[in-house]
Amino acid sequence: FFSSTAYEAENAQRPYLTSTHKARIKRFLNELEKSLNTTTRKEPLNTTNFLACQRILTEFVKIFDIHGYEKDSPLEQRVFFSLNGYTTLTKLIELRAECHKPPLAPESLIALTVSVYRAATNNNVDNALYILNSGKILILVESLVRHLTGLKIDDLTTSNNDHQSESEKLAQIDLVTNLAEILASLITMYNSVMNDIRKHETETNEDKLIISRLTDFISYMANIAILDRIAAFFRSARAIVNTTKSRIPDMITHLLNLLQQMIYFSRPK
Questions:
Q1: Full residue range of the structural domain in which residue 82 is found
Q2: Considering its fold, how many domains does the chain have in total?
């Protein structure tokens, strides 16, 4: 696909940026990394580290919230990028990677991580292109395919008196919803980048690189059978339209939007 290591190396000269929350972002990322240290030994996050991660991720969502106390969200997003924030988030998402059995973190934490990912990338084309060029987007796609495959229709439609398993189901729905939402949002931004490139009289080398990486990425998504997984989900989804679980309609909307953006990218212009 493309070498993320080479890209990271060439991108190591991050811009020196300063912002209101830079010190907090840096401290939070260091704390997350510290909490993640235990998982390098393949041990699941303990309760203390889990709660620390949860607290920090919630703070990050607030920092990037354009409706909240931070009006300079794009700058904070770039600062987050320049401090390697996406690398830390990727490590968190990978705590539930295929190779970790049992998983090293609960789905609720990964769902929260993905919502920070989304908040840090929202309407920020530079960050979105970084996620593409560094190959980090592949982790998001693989995660969506894996968790969508693990989503059982029975789980979504039957209520269970067991509070524990009920909250796990909701976390799973949240996770798939958040992943579908960020991927749909990224491809929407990539489509708009492509539209801009088409307006250029002559394509620059950078334009060509973006086009080639995007084309590879969309092909990769098709090859990893994401369309099959979504189709399989919809085939058995008749019952879930009436479900009381609040985020199911969101999940369906974002999955449809994801398909729409992929098709929009691929159709002849």
A1: 4-266
A2: 1
